[in-house]
């Protein structure tokens, strides 16, 4: 059925509709083992992003996310936030989550 | 007289212990002795001065002075100073000798010394108080706690000696842990990737919504969502071709075809083969072994019950359990079909060993089961689940000992279905299948009929006889006969509970099986552990015929086609088939069908000329009767058969009881 429906193009959506679609975080990649930890991480990320997205202060978001995760799950967490970047990291399994939220990508991992 | 006096002195000597001088005055009278008064004797020393009266009266004066007469008062000593002797002045103290000098510590209270002492202590106390006060003033109150003037714990200046323990040297112990697993992860955040991802999700979401909408529409059409879901799952299942019901049916067909091809010879024998040698020997027959039904799971169990299905002549069920008290385990019921001889059609497992089975004659899928632990159950063999549709429990009532036989009752259609059971706890019970549970209704208790009333204890404690088997008369439905563990057979009626209409003596050991003749209403047959099979007329209290088979007889069964044919199985693995019309003393056929196993049960097929025998090694053998053993097979006339048996009994020439 999914195949039959034509993929909606950007032009099909109004601006407000698109905003609605992107108003929630999407987990692109995650290998955290307890599901609660992943949920917790997504929650922390969305909270931090919501707080600072209006000012575009990605540094502050990063700080909040990193410090919160360090407190909750022990050091050392690393967080990268940006609208466009490439990365190649080595992380300690299984502690990585890669989320899109709005127009930014968030990479959070422990190493 | 003199003699008497002497005698008295001697006596005084003895009694007083001192000798009175001969010269002293002695009472001459003997009477004096009687009172033994002391005698005063004045003794005067020999050298005492003899003073005259004048001398005695003269007074002497004596003056005592303090001067010591022993002290010399004229001691002269040489004086070195003056070089001459000089007389010491008298009254020198040299003569004083002190032997003991003791100063007392006690003082008189009123004395001056005591007062002095009291004054001293008073002053001391005052000084002490003053000193204390000063210290308190200087250091504050805190000083109070370790007051130097109070007694301390360590009054005696005791000091502890330190003890040194051995210190273990430090040791190094290293553990190297595995470093946590790391993995590389790389990616790229770009706006278009983010966009694509969100769009992908959006598409999925829309698709889901549409699916839900469609389901709602369909659900509205059929009435409910749930049924729709079940339809969907049903459809999904039907898609799975390998596990579908139709596939199962097809596979079953193929399995049966395969079995028929593999066992083609046996099937041919079953259908067409007859022992041609029977034509040449009269009064003898043989059994042709066909299939052996067994499963891997029943290997260690004994066949405890066999029952043909009344509607489907190819279907029979086998109950597995154990007759051995020490080796009880779980039970099993297998329903085999002659069409598939390699594997049971239906299998049910029970917690306790199965002891008996009975199919309902009309509702042919209902199977009543009695277990070793006293539970009776009803299975619907069509149900795939392993659970009985009814089961007795302690709450609804249950037998306390193994249930040895169950038998369905033929009731009116309107009535609820019911069956009877007999157990070695001495009770016969009627079980009614009500809406949701089995209702137990005790029919009778098998009291021990003690013919000899001479033992008072027996009469006081009427025990219950363990019932082993029972059978209902086909014509008079209320009538039934019960075989007991002690060997007695009782004729009972449903109408008179607790009373025996008749007791048949003859067996000496447990009666294993008892059956009414299907054609003749008065005749029944019984088999027992005492090696005998006995034929009875219920109006005659002794056995009409008796056959000794040389081993414990596990089961006996009348043939469904002839009133005079019955078969019995013995624990040496032999099947004995009798036809009384042919031979009243010897079996037509005595054949060993299993090696090293006991045969426990036998049953005739209603249509085909075969019998099934169960053994104690978990297998069932099917045997085909040769033509001599089934002379009457195929054209049964009830009236004629009854007459045949009647004439046989008449020839047995036994008078009925009055």
TrEMBL record, chain A:
It is found in: Cytoplasm, Cytoskeleton, Cilium axoneme. The keyword Phosphoprotein does not apply. GO terms for cellular component: axoneme; dynein complex; microtubule. Gene3D superfamilies: Protein Inhibitor Of Neuronal Nitric Oxide Synthase. PANTHER family: DYNEIN AXONEMAL LIGHT CHAIN 4 (PTHR11886:SF2), DYNEIN LIGHT CHAIN (PTHR11886). Force generating protein of respiratory cilia. Produces force towards the minus ends of microtubules. Dynein has ATPase activity. This is Dynein light chain. It comes from Pelagomonas calceolata.
UniProtKB/TrEMBL annotation, chain B:
One of its GO terms (molecular function) is dynein light chain binding. Residues 1-10 have a biased composition (Basic residues). It comes from the Eukaryota. Its main location: cytoplasm. Residues 1-33, 214-242 are annotated as: Disordered. The keyword Phosphoprotein does not apply. It is found in: Cytoplasm, Cytoskeleton, Cilium axoneme. One of its GO terms (cellular component) is outer dynein arm. Residues 11-27, 224-235 have a biased composition (Polar residues). It holds the Pfam family WD40. The keyword Cytoplasm applies. WD repeats lie at residues 504-546. Keywords: Cell projection, Cytoplasm, Cytoskeleton, Dynein, Microtubule, Motor protein, Repeat, WD repeat. GO terms for biological process: cilium movement; outer dynein arm assembly. Signal peptide: none annotated. Belongs to the dynein intermediate chain family. This is Uncharacterized protein. It comes from Pelagomonas calceolata.
């Amino acid at each position: 059925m999914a195949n039959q429906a034509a993929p909606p193009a950007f032009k099909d959506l109004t601006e407000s509709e698109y905003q609605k679609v992107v108003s929630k975080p999407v987990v692109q990649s995650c290998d955290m083992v307890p599901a609660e930890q992943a949920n917790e991480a997504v929650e922390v990320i969305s909270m931090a992003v919501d707080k600072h997205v209006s000012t575009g202060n990605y540094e502050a978001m990063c700080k909040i996310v990193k410090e919160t995760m360090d407190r909750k799950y022990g050091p050392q967490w690393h967080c990268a936030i940006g609208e466009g970047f490439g990365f190649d990291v080595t992380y300690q399994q299984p502690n990585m989550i890669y989320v899109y939220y709005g127009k930014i990508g968030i990479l959070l991992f422990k190493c | 007289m003199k003699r008497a006096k002497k005698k008295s002195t001697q006596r005084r000597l003895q009694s007083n212990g001192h000798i009175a001088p001969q010269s002293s005055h002695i009472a001459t009278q003997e009477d004096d002795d009687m009172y033994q008064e002391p005698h005063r004797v004045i003794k005067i020393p020999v050298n005492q001065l003899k003073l005259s009266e004048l001398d005695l009266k003269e007074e002497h004066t004596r003056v005592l002075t303090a001067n010591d007469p022993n002290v010399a008062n004229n001691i002269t000593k040489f004086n070195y100073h003056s070089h001459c002797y000089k007389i010491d002045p008298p009254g020198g103290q040299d003569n004083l000798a002190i032997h003991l000098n003791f100063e007392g510590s006690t003082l008189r209270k009123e004395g001056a010394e005591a007062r002095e002492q009291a004054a001293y202590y008073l002053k001391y106390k005052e000084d002490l108080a003053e000193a204390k006060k000063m210290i308190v003033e200087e250091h504050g109150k805190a000083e109070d706690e370790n007051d130097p003037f109070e007694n301390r714990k360590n009054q005696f200046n005791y000091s502890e000696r330190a003890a040194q323990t051995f210190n273990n040297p430090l040791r190094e112990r290293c553990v190297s842990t595995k470093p946590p697993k790391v993995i590389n992860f790389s990616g790229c955040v770009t706006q278009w990737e983010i966009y694509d991802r969100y769009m992908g999700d959006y598409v999925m979401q829309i698709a889901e919504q549409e699916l839900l909408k469609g389901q709602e529409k369909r659900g509205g059409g059929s009435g409910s969502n749930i049924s729709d879901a079940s339809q969907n799952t049903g459809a999904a299942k039907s898609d799975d071709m390998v596990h579908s019901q139709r596939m199962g049916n097809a596979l079953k067909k193929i399995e049966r075809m395969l079995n028929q091809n593999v066992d083609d010879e046996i099937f041919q024998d079953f259908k067409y083969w007859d022992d041609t040698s029977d034509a040449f020997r009269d009064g003898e027959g043989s059994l042709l072994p066909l299939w052996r039904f067994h499963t891997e799971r029943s290997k260690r169990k004994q066949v405890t019950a066999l029952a043909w299905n009344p509607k489907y002549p190819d279907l029979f069920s086998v109950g597995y359990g154990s007759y051995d008290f020490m080796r009880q385990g779980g039970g099993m019921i297998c329903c085999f079909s002659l069409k598939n001889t390699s594997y049971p059609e239906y299998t049910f497992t029970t917690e306790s060993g199965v002891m008996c089975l009975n199919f309902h004659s009309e509702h042919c899928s209902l199977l009543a089961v009695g277990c070793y632990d006293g539970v009776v159950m009803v299975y619907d063999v069509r149900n795939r689940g392993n659970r009985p549709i009814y089961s007795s429990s302690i709450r609804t009532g249950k037998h306390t000992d193994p249930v040895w036989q169950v038998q369905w009752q033929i009731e009116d259609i309107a009535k609820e279905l019911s069956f009877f059971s007999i157990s070695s706890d001495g009770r016969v019970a009627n079980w009614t299948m009500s809406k949701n549970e089995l209702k137990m209704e005790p029919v009778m208790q098998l009291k021990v009929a003690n013919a000899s009333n001479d033992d008072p204890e027996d009469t006081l404690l009427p025990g219950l006889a363990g019932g082993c088997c029972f059978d209902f008369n086909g014509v008079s439905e209320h009538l039934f006969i019960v075989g007991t563990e002690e060997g007695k057979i009782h004729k009972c009626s449903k109408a008179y509970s607790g009373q025996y209409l008749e007791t048949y003596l003859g067996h000496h050991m447990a009666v294993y099986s008892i059956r009414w003749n299907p054609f003749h209403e008065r005749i029944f047959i019984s088999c027992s552990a005492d090696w005998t099979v006995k034929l009875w007329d219920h109006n005659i209290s002794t056995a009409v015929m008796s056959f000794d088979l040389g081993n414990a007889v596990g089961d006996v069964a009348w043939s469904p086609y002839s009133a005079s044919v019955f078969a019995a199985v013995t624990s040496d693995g032999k099947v004995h088939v009798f036809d009384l019309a042919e031979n009243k003393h010897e079996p037509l056929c005595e054949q060993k069908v299993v090696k090293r196993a006991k045969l426990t049960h036998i049953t005739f097929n209603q249509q085909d000329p075969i019998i099934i025998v169960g053994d104690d090694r978990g297998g069932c053998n099917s045997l085909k009767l040769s033509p001599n053993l089934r002379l009457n097979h195929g054209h049964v006339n009830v009236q004629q058969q009854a007459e045949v048996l009647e004439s046989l009994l008449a020839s047995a020439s036994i008078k009925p009881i009055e």
